[in-house]
Write the structure tokens for this entry.
Amino acid sequence: MNNPPLIFLGLLVTFLASFGGLVLGPQMQIGRQVAVPDKFTGTPYPSTRPGFAAKGKDVYRSLGCAECHTRQVREPYFGTDIARGWGNRFTVAQDYLNDYPVMLGQLRVGPDLMNIGARQTNENWQLLHLYNPREVVPGSLMPKYPFLFNVKRGGRPTLESIERFATDDARNLVAYLLSLQATTPLFESPLPIPQTNAPAATDTNAPAGAAANTNAPAGPAK
């Protein structure tokens, strides 16, 4: 029997049920998340980024870094991100509470940067990597950003001298990169149990275990 009111009511109920399950439910679950205390330090996680790092995020966005780098460590069953050394746990919604917009990225022309601040803590290395990536990572596909530095033509900054050439944008960008550390254990993403005799991981886009260029400095490992 053709009954328009019942058909309309059925469609309305279907729409509301779909909206509640696909939109309202996740919003109530994820949208109400707040910073949680780090079990080791007691400080809120994630914490608000300091001023220089906050400005550096705008530089990161303006340069389109998210076009070639992701910021998400996938679960072990979904990839080899943890085996590559990109993080010691997979990332979840909690990790992005203070990020707007959230620049997850789609391509991995370069390594994931979710934990670059924990992997590479040398500020001068980060600066030289921005000025000339191939100076510290032979064969890198990353473009140079010499406009972030006040270097006269013919100059050749070194790891020891690069800091004095850096502009405010370069320093702020490095401050942002150093702030990228998702190392706090969370209930939904705990730290793995340490394994002995595990192979050393490298910061690379090659499959886990394969030889490739890395973003590690010549000295201490990241």
Summary: Residues 216-222 have pLDDT under 50 and may be disordered. The two ends are 71 Å apart (CA to CA).
